[in-house]
Amino acid sequence: MKVSLRAAVPPDAALCLRQWIEACAASSGGLPPGVELVQTRLIRTVGRGRLPGLGDAFIKVMGFPRGKDRLRYVHRALPARHESLVLETVKARAPDLPVPESLAWASQRALGCLPRLSVLVTRGLEVDAASPTPSVADRVLAARRLCEVGIEHGDLHHGNFVRLTDGRTAALDLQSARVHGGSLEPRVCVRIAAKLIESEGDDALDAVVDGGLVAASARDAVRAQAARLRSATVERRVRRCLQESSEFAKSIGVGAVRHVRRGVAPGRALVRVQEPDALRLWIGDRVREVLDGCPPLFVGLVRPLVPQLGVRPALLLGSDQAAELLDSARPDLLAAFARYRALARLA
Predict the structure, then answer these.
(1) Which residues, in sequence order, are bridge partners of residue 178?
(2) Considering Cα of 16, then 21, then 23, then 29, what sign does the dihedral take?
(3) What value does the mean pLDDT of the chain take?
(4) 3-state class of 247 per DSSP?
(5) Do residues 221 and 255 lie in contact, with contact meaning Cβ atoms separated by under 8 Å?
(6) 193-210 burial: b if 16+ Cβ within 10 Å, else e
């Protein structure tokens, strides 16, 4: 495994960092002992621990369970090394914009090219616990600063910024950022502004103009692109119910494909419905969950891999009582499926 530590890290902290990284490799991407879990996703886990002489530190561990993830990084720097370089670039070009300090990164490949493990450790920032979320205006100013120094982040959103105890706004999670030689072109800034205000209202649209991220003449372009992004984001969240994701597991068996919510055991009731209703009801249930905040009715879907094989579609219910609700909920579920089709067309 290739490991890189900053020269300024104290010896005790350096020893702890190496132990953390070795533990991640030994556990195939798990967090080291004594590190608190902060966030977990299908391909990434984030933890928080303490380093001697340095205090809080965050460790981001990325595995590559899916084939598409492994192929994506065959000829690219692994995420930990890339993000570390981006963080160092921001510190050099925009010292006035706080970002996490990279302490160590490690990369491991199998067969010489296939990514196996990526680990990044950064020093914790002093976040204002009482008011950690910066205002829209402050987030826009931080985003504009990134654009001015040539940092393009196509997925920049409100969660990428925190307020520090000294009142400044810090940028986080720059794994997806790209480094350019100079300031970004206006058309790129429009894309970044649209993503930044995707989940905000017209006040945020005013902020990206007033804050100088985009020109006033680009207001309509930002509004239109933000609307498309909202539709695409919802459509993508709904589509996860048919994919391998942090929320759903997908498996292929003899003649059938099985989709199940992670961490939820199916109840004893198993309701079988004829195609195409099974798939439509499953997607409609997910649409109501994403758009309306409704508790899901189904925890799984079994559908034939090849309809001619005779495998009957089935919906797995989370409780026996859910079977009694299916008939009454069917019209709403099918209507929700129609909403998904409309969103897919907009996206």
Answers:
(1) 152
(2) positive
(3) 90
(4) coil
(5) no
(6) bbbbbbebeeebbbbbbe
Tens digit of pLDDT for each residue in 317-331? 877 666 778 888 999
What tokens does 141 get?
Answer: 């100013």
Q: What is the pLDDT of residues 7-54, one digit of tens each?
A: 789 999 999 999 999 999 998 888 999 999 999 888 899 999 999 999
DSSP string, 1-55: -EEEE-TTS-HHHHHHHHHHHHHHHHTTSPPPTTPEEEEE-SSEEEEEEEETTTE
Order of strands, sheet of 114-123, starting from the edge strand that comes earlier in the sequence: 2-5, 101-110, 114-123, 55-63, 44-51, 36-40
Q: What domains does the chain contain, in order, with CATH numbers?
A: 1-124 (3.30.200.20), 126-240 (1.10.510), 247-340 (no CATH)
**Would you tell me how many other CB atoms lie within 10 Å of the CB of residue 57?**
23
What is the DSSP secondary structure assignment for residue 123, as one 8-state letter? E
Structure tokens given for 336: 């929700």
Chain centroid to CA 319? 30
pTM for this prediction:
0.84
CA angle 229, 232, 237 (to 5 degrees): 125
What pLDDT was estimated at residue 16? Answer: 96
